Amino acid sequence: MADPRWLDEREFRAWLGYRRMRLLLDAQIARDLSRESGLSDPDYDVLSALTSSEDRRWRLQALADRMLWSKSRLSRHISRMEERGLVTREDCATDARGAVIVLTESGQRAIEAAAPGHVESVRRHLIDLLTPEQIDTLGDIADTVLAHLAEAQGDAGP
């Protein structure tokens, strides 16, 4: 077995900085979202996915895949959102075991009220701190890593 390719000082700084930044940034934006709207990050992810669909509905499994959650974990979360009137669940016409998650009017109002504060938090804690060149670089980095991960996932097979 080959010797590990240890990170040099520059690489280690970048890796540790990325990890720490991601954790702190996610936590800050989640706190802002919760404080300003009462929504959690997963609530916002579900509602924004539903608003991105023309008919304001998504298959439960597709939504779970998008969020990188198990179907059962998302189903439990959707149940809590249903109790708050943000979404409803319908049977899937093409799959007796499937479910479709539908955005309610209350859910639409909640995401419309939360979005301005959420985007302001993203701006305040990330976007507005960067130069246009840094934003372009960050986007390029994200594209490169996401393409690699998508390819690696495709290679994993069933």
UniProtKB/TrEMBL annotation:
SUPFAM superfamilies: Winged helix' DNA-binding domain (SSF46785). This is DNA-binding MarR family transcriptional regulator. Residues 1-147 form the HTH marR-type domain. SMART domains: HTH_MARR (SM00347). PANTHER family: MARR FAMILY REGULATORY PROTEIN, TRANSCRIPTIONAL REGULATOR, MARR FAMILY. Gene3D superfamilies: Winged helix-like DNA-binding domain superfamily/Winged helix DNA-binding domain. Pfam families: MarR_2 (PF12802). GO terms for molecular function: DNA binding. It comes from the Bacteria. InterPro entries: HTH_MarR-typ, MarR/SlyA-like, WH-like_DNA-bd_sf, WH_DNA-bd_sf. Keywords: DNA-binding. It comes from Streptosporangium brasiliense.
